[in-house]
Design brief:
With 442 residues, the chain is α+β, with helices and mostly antiparallel strands. It is 15% helix and 33% strand.
């Protein structure tokens, strides 16, 4: 048996046993659904305890779920090998907030529910997750904003098309040279660079973009810039705007919640709330993901969901380091095999549920069945859809990874050297805004 995967299975068994000892078994709950069930608003109560509160509200407002058998999600072999080689030397720093000795792979393959530092370890596993260890580029995707409603007709308030969502990791690289660390890390101290640019439509927003740097130094805030087409100028963004959807350009997404949760771990206090069997869309068996016809297009449905083991982590902005203008706390639901946030429920400063983030994944050897270039020798996870909804107003932003109207089936390029560090500069973002789809106008 692959050692790293074996550890994950062993860990799951240990945690299950511990939960049974303290009387937190969820077996009766998960028994309420079985493969083949179709969940709609009419029988939504069957999944009330199997999805987060925000996602349950989605079902009540028309999103449907097709329950399918649970499958095992294996890591890409290079990530597994890196975990086996390096994980034994990884530790939390004495203040329990940062990593010491990390090179590549999963930092902490064994999570013990009784470990007082379990939450921090789960979060660092999420940071250095297997979905994309070196680089990624999502081309031609779009995001609609609509108001949800059961059987509500689709009416788009905004439809934003974007050329690239890309990232480049300087640490933890497993598939593309330089491995395992880019020499640039010694100079810049950056864990990674990420970008979202240029906006292609609507016309008034064309060229808008955002660029973000994440640093290993726990005291160094993220650096972010935006390009505003109206003034044709770069703007340095305040770190305090990381939870503000306006910083990301439009809609209900904000820079701290791209791909679920991407805050700087040292700026939060975490609490391990347990591990629970829940439904999640870890492998929907198709891409592009469809628009849900029964909730006004506020989600993706009907899709295949499985019973999964999810870690539940509470995150609160750490006083003195980061002050969220919107959220008093967040509950992050992380798949225990994929290390990916399947859901995030965000609560406002009154303690009321405010936003829900839900993701849809596909587990395959290529991003789309008709892809002919970006093909892998193993299966890996692709995020094919996502949605953030303001549950207080019903405004939902739904993204398609890639767009249903993408001109090419080659949407996701993961760990293929499709981008390099030259993309991740304010100057490159400005050139893309002026020149077209990407740096070279691709």
């Amino acid at each position: 048996m692959n050692r790293a995967i074996g550890w994950g299975a062993w860990c799951s068994g240990v945690l299950t046993a511990l939960m049974l000892v303290v009387g937190i078994s969820d077996a009766p709950v998960s028994a309420q659904v079985k493969p083949g069930d179709l969940i709609t608003p009419d029988n939504a109560s069957k999944v009330q305890d199997l999805v987060p509160p925000g996602t349950y509200m989605r079902v009540l407002h028309g999103m449907s779920i097709k329950v399918e058998p649970t499958e095992r999600i294996d890591w890409p072999q290079p990530y597994t090998e890196a975990t086996e080689k390096y994980s034994s030397q990884t530790r939390l720093t004495p203040d329990h907030r940062s990593l010491d000795g990390y090179v590549a792979g999963q930092p902490f393959p064994i999570i013990d529910a009784n470990d007082p530092l379990a939450a921090q370890k789960v979060i660092w596993n999420e940071v250095f997750r297997p979905i994309s260890t070196d680089d990624y580029d999502l081309r031609w995707f779009d995001c609609d904003s609509v108001y949800w409603g059961r059987n509500k007709p689709y009416f788009s308030i905004t439809d934003i098309e974007v050329g690239h969502y890309a990232g480049y990791n300087e640490v933890g690289r497993t598939e593309v040279q330089p491995i395992p660390t880019d020499p640039d890390f010694k100079t810049t101290g950056r864990f990674y660079e990420a970008l979202l640019y240029p906006v292609l439509a609507p016309a008034q927003g064309r060229g808008t973009g955002i660029l973000k740097f994440r640093y290993a130094d726990p005291r160094h805030d993220d650096d972010s810039w935006s390009w505003t087409p109206g003034t044709r100028r770069l703007r340095r963004l305040s770190y305090t705007l990381s939870d503000d959807s306006g910083a990301g350009g439009a809609q209900s997404y904000d820079p701290n919640h791209y791909e679920g949760w991407s805050g700087k771990p040292e700026d939060y206090d975490f609490k391990f709330l347990g591990e629970k069997t829940m439904l999640a869309a870890i492998d929907i068996h198709r891409s592009p993901d469809p628009r849900c016809p029964t909730d006004g297009g506020a989600s993706h449905c009907p899709d295949a969901w499985q019973l999964r083991r999810l870690y539940m982590i509470e995150a609160k902005a750490r006083p003195g380091r980061y002050a969220s203008a919107l959220y008093s706390r967040e509950i992050i639901y992380i798949d225990s095999e994929a290390d990916f946030p399947m859901f995030v429920d965000m609560y406002d400063n009154r303690g009321q549920l405010y936003y829900n983030y839900t993701t849809w994944m596909n587990y395959a050897d290529r991003a789309r069945p008709d892809s002919r270039i970006a093909i892998y020798p193993f299966k890996r996870e692709f995020q094919v859809g996502s949605s953030t909804v303001d549950v207080q107003s019903g405004l939902s932003s739904v993204c398609y990874h890639p767009s249903m109207n993408a001109p090419s089936p080659e949407g996701w390029f993961i760990n293929m050297g499709a981008v390099d560090r030259e993309w991740f500069t304010p100057e490159a973002m400005a050139r893309a805004a002026e020149g077209g789809h990407g740096i070279s106008g691709d």
